[in-house]
Amino acid sequence: MPGSAKRSTTKRIIDANINRVKEGLRVCEEITRFILNNRLLTRELKEARHQIDAAARSLAARSELLQERLSSSDVGENIYANELKRDSLKDIFFANIQRVKESVRVLEEFSKLININSSLKFKKVRYKIYAIEKKASAKISALCAH
After folding, report:
1. Is residue 99 in a domain?
2. What is the pTM of this model?
3. Distance CA 13, CA 68 (A)
4. For a FRET experiment, which of 29, 63, 83, 91 has its CA 20 to 30 Å from that of 138?
5. 52 lies in which domain range?
6. Cα–Cα distance between 142 and 108 in angstroms, integer?
7. What burial class does residue 123 get, using C-beta atoms within 10 Å of its C-beta: 0-12 exposed, 13-18 middle, 19+ buried?
8. How many domains are there within the chain?
9. Tens digit of pLDDT at every position of the chain (146 positions)
């Protein structure tokens, strides 16, 4: 694959995963804010979203990423797997936190092709997400047990 096509594909992957991770974080943040009423977890999720933004800015300008977006022809648009099945608040949270972890890992790997420092920032955020997940899991489980 020629260099410019490789870079274009990489930016497309980065754009998709930035969107995916931020969407997933926002869903989790809404749960911790409005359902758990937990200020600390809400703040940590919001900070993680902002850290993702900061790491992404060192990869490419938002306009560059948008240029590579091909939403109308994305072959994954109508693949749903288990996305349509949610039975509880717990299911929603864990589906989204899993999406976040996977997307941050993709960002960590593909950013190595552009900026190794960004990759290290994404790795740091990924470990932060692991810690948030652990804390939130206990609170959500306790809430669902009542």
Report:
1. yes
2. 0.85
3. 9
4. 83
5. 3-69+86-145
6. 33
7. middle
8. 1
9. 556 656 688 888 999 999 999 999 999 999 999 999 999 999 999 999 999 999 999 888 676 766 665 555 555 555 556 656 768 999 999 999 999 999 999 999 999 999 999 999 999 999 999 999 999 999 998 887 76
In a domain, 133, yes or no: yes
Amino acid in position 39: R
Structural domain contains residue 56? yes
Q: What are phi and psi of 40, to 5 degrees?
A: -65, -50
Does a structural domain hold residue 76? Answer: no
Map 13-82 to HEC letters.
HHHHHHHHHHHHHHHHHHHHHHHCCCHHHHHHHHHHHHHHHHHHHCCCCHHHHHHHCCHHHCCCCCCCCC
Contact of 24 with 100, CB cutoff 8 Å: yes
Residue with tokens 């980065």: 14
- Give dist(CA 70, CA 112) in Å, integer: 23
